[in-house]
Amino acid sequence: MSNYVPTIGLEIHAELKTRTKMFCDSKNDPDEKRPNVNICPVCLAHPGTLPVVNREAVKHVLRVGAALGGKLADYTEFDRKNYFYPDLPKGYQLSQYEYPLVSGGELNNVALTRVHLEEDTASSLHDDATGATLIDYNRAGVPLMELVTEPVITSAKQAGDFARELQLLLRYLGASEANMEKGEMRVEANVSVRFDKSQIPNPKSQTNHKSQTNSNDQNSKLGTKVEIKNLNSFRAMERAVAYEIKRQTELLERGESVVQETRGWDDAKQKTFTQRMKEGSADYRYFPDPDLPSLKLSEMPDFAPEELRRAMPELPWVRRGRYTKLGVKTEDAALFTSDSRYGDFFDIVSAEFEGGKLTALAANYLANDVVRIIRDIEEREAKYRPEIPISTRSFKEIIHMVGDKEISSRVAKDLLLRAVTDARSPREIAIEEGILGAVSQEDISAIVDTVLEQNRGVAEDYRAGKAAALQYLVGQGMKAAKGAADPEALREAIQKRLS
Ligand code: ADP
Ligand code: MG
């Protein structure tokens, strides 16, 4: 067992979904392929131009903060973070320093430091043919949210889960598409490894490491951190973090030390590599932007925390919990929560089953058989995210038939497949193909006779205006028909007889 324990802190940027950019009315369109079309004098930093705060972006960040249980600022301002780089036309980035929009909060039990709002830089494109670097200013000034966690994550998997949950939240809130592959969400992982004296059985050795912990600063107990950049997927991120933990642990075990630096992730080599050494902490000379007003958020009614909380959609973890409470398996609940096609379908279907055993049955068929049908379509037709090609009505009918033991699960799977292309209802298919016995009009007449004969009281109730009694009688009729009758036809026949 290793005496070295890893610590990870994440810094995550997300491009916000707004109509216009952060401080001007140039379009914010991440899908624009032509370079330098969504630009204006403000985001190109022409002298004499003035920025204006985008309310939509402020609201997105506050909503994220409210969802994460953070403290929403009642006062905020934007600061200039000064540095030179060709993708930064103003020579400073508008960001937030002393007064972030959100402080604290947590996600997946990971404590958050802050969430603030800033602007994105332009994108640099390296042209291999000419060796030149080209700059596309479409992205310059796009609203960017930055979320910073405390250094409390302890594994690559936990870091991945955190980032995935944040992505889901941003999508639920409509704050960002948060696609890692498109750079709409960018994760930087800070990784350190420290010697853990509590893992040493001999209590005497504790004094040997006293010197490491004699500072009041919490962070001084942590090891030297390395920051990893260019992580373009969750997978890359988890691998890079795992690689870095191993690399640092091995260095320390050999008695060497970790150098504080920024490292990149080489996906081909599956290794991190030195990008640049960290020179102390860069002096960005932050100061409040004199061209922008500070915002007294407490005086702005549509940013009131209670208002934001009231207008919150069902959050991913709440939805997941709702499903597991209904008896849905953990991994299926996760699927229904992360993919709205399945989640919305399941919500419609399960509403009828009211948490009974059919709910779990429906979840199973949806998460296994319907998922397989969708995967087949994706492969066969090379379609991206096809809709579920079965109506909730047909699906429910099949679940009812399985639940009532009218059909076997093998037949149910077959009917599900048939429902994709066959316009008939699953029950019709089953009857017409002789899987279920057909029931004639005369049979229905006879069944209605028997049911009314045996349930006189209920029939009276229905006549007296108790609508629910009808459903009971139809149910009795279906039972008598061994499930093979058309419930609509039964209902009509009973209604007619009792009217
Ligand atoms: P810096 O001043 O270098 O930007 P911060 O204290 O602002 O460092 O932290 C930046 C990120 O690094 C945060 O996500 C934080 O949780 C993480 N972090 C800080 N110290 C460590 C450490 N020793 N090990 C791992 N992560 C750390
Ligand atoms: Mg920092």
UniProtKB/TrEMBL annotation:
GO molecular function: asparaginyl-tRNA synthase (glutamine-hydrolyzing) activity; ATP binding; glutaminyl-tRNA synthase (glutamine-hydrolyzing) activity
PROSITE patterns: GATB
Pfam families (UniProt xref): GatB_N, GatB_Yqey
Region listing for Disordered, in residue ranges: 197-223
Catalytic activity entry: L-glutamyl-tRNA(Gln) + L-glutamine + ATP + H2O = L-glutaminyl-tRNA(Gln) + L-glutamate + ADP + phosphate + H(+); L-aspartyl-tRNA(Asn) + L-glutamine + ATP + H2O = L-asparaginyl-tRNA(Asn) + L-glutamate + ADP + phosphate + 2 H(+)
Asn/Gln amidotransferase domain: residues covered: 344-498
Keywords: ATP-binding, Ligase, Nucleotide-binding, Protein biosynthesis
Biological process annotations from GO: glutaminyl-tRNAGln biosynthesis via transamidation; translation
Segments of skewed composition (Polar residues): 199-222
EC number: 6.3.5.-
Domain of life: Bacteria
Keyword Membrane: no
Cross-referenced InterPro entries: Asn/Gln-tRNA_amidoTrfase_suB/E, Asn/Gln-tRNA_Trfase_suB/E_cat, Asn/Gln_amidotransferase, Asn/Gln_tRNA_amidoTrase-B-like, GatB, GatB_Yqey_C_2, Gln-tRNA_amidoTrfase_suB_CS, Gln_synth/guanido_kin_cat_dom
Subunit and partners: Heterotrimer of A, B and C subunits.
Protein family: Belongs to the GatB/GatE family. GatB subfamily.
Biological role stated in the UniProt entry: Allows the formation of correctly charged Asn-tRNA(Asn) or Gln-tRNA(Gln) through the transamidation of misacylated Asp-tRNA(Asn) or Glu-tRNA(Gln) in organisms which lack either or both of asparaginyl-tRNA or glutaminyl-tRNA synthetases. The reaction takes place in the presence of glutamine and ATP through an activated phospho-Asp-tRNA(Asn) or phospho-Glu-tRNA(Gln).
Protein name, entry field: Aspartyl/glutamyl-tRNA(Asn/Gln) amidotransferase subunit B
Organism: Candidatus Kaiserbacteria bacterium RIFCSPLOWO2_01_FULL_50_24
